[in-house]
Amino acid sequence: MPKKTFPDFALPGTSGITFKLSAQRGHPVVIYFYPKDNTPGCTTEGQNFRDLYPQFQKLKCAVFGVSRDSLKSHENFKAKMTFPFELLSDTEETACKQFGVIKMKNMYGRQVRGIERSTFVFNAAGELAREWRGLKVPGHVQEVLDFVKTLGTAN
Questions:
Q1: CA distances from residue 107 to 39, 43, 93, 97, 112 in whole angstroms, order as listed
Q2: Which of the residues 11, 31, 42, 141 is marked catalytic?
């Protein structure tokens, strides 16, 4: 299967960073898209990444969470949950469109447009190594970590 690459993009992130996909080469990267700050599933998913973060760090793997929430909302969510990784704000849906994660979803019986929970892992060469779409939170972060281990990037 040929490796998929994505056009470069830049997004503002917490702690005053500007994330650029091209700047992440040389180590694996996890980019996870989630629907909304401070909602039950998104909080649990973030906490799971937080709790396993030291293991991602051992593999020299960066982790970034992305949603359409504002930077202010992200800063509050990150502080409240003590996330050791940065959250990226995609209010213009730049990355969301590029990764095709915006879907029509049923919320309380009506159709709403939102982010489909999805995770993407890039290898050290910047190529998409694996993607999960429409995933369920329980066990997912461990599955991502197990996959990153197979990339053989740990020194």
A1: 13, 18, 20, 21, 7
A2: 42
In CATH, the architecture of 25-150 is 3-Layer(aba) Sandwich (3.40)
**Is the dihedral angle over the CA atoms 21, 103, 129, 148 positive or is it negative?**
positive
- Domain extent listing, the chain: 25-150
Check if the beta carbon of residue 57 is closer than 8 Å to that of residue 155.
no
110: pLDDT strictly greater than 90: no
C-alpha distances out from residue 36 to 100, 120, 123, Å = 17, 18, 27
For the question of residue 61 being annotated catalytic, the response is: no
Within 10 angstroms of residue 137's Cβ, the number of other Cβ atoms is 17
Q: Which amino acid is at 27?
A: H
Do 144 and 33 meet the contact criterion of CB atoms below 8 Å apart? Answer: no
Tell me the pLDDT tens digit for each residue of 65-94.
999 999 999 999 999 999 999 999 999 999
